[in-house]
């Protein structure tokens, strides 16, 4: 499974780590992903998703069903 948010699609970003002497080395800025169990009322069950913390905050305002429909995922798979 890819290190990617299942609802927003957030994933790692390529960047540089810059030292005090301004030497640049490549690094990855990973998304802050968490495994989260969320109650899905339409399916009447729990759904376990790997979400970014931004997506978890957004779920407090949007319903899971609306968010999944925007992302184009089928919650019956999870």
Uncertain segments of ≥5 residues (pLDDT<50)?
A: none
The largest sheet has its strands arranged as: 1-2
Shape: elongated
Radius of gyration: 16 Å
Q: What kind of sheet is the major sheet?
A: 2 strands, antiparallel
Percent helix, as a range, is 10-25%
Based on secondary structure, the structural category is alpha+beta
**N- and C-termini, Cα separation:** 13 Å
**Strand portion, in percent?**
35-45%
What's the mean pLDDT score?
94
Order of helices and strands: EEEEHH
Strand segment tally: 4
Describe this structure in words.
The chain has 2 helices and 4 strands, in the order E-E-E-E-H-H. The chain has 78 residues and is an alpha+beta fold. A hairpin with a 5-residue loop joins strand 1 (13-18) and strand 2. The longest helix has 8 residues, at 64-71. The chain is elongated, with a radius of gyration of 16 Å. 12% of the residues are buried. The mean pLDDT is 94.
Blueprint (SSEs and pairs):
Layout: E1 13-18, E2 24-29, E3 33-40, E4 45-52, H1 53-59, H2 64-71
Antiparallel strand pairs: 1-2, 3-4
Compose a concise summary of this entry.
This protein is α+β, with helices and mostly antiparallel strands and 78 residues long.
Annotation keywords:
78 residues; alpha+beta; two-stranded antiparallel ribbon; 4 strands; 19% helix; elongated
């Amino acid at each position: 499974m890819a290190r990617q948010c299942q609802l927003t699609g957030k994933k790692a970003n390529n960047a540089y780590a810059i030292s005090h002497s301004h030497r640049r080395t490549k690094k990855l800025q990973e998304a802050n992903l968490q495994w989260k169990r969320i109650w899905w009322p339409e399916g009447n069950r729990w759904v376990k998703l790997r979400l970014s913390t931004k997506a978890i905050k957004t779920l407090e305002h949007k319903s899971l069903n609306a968010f999944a429909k925007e992302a184009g995922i089928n919650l019956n798979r999870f």
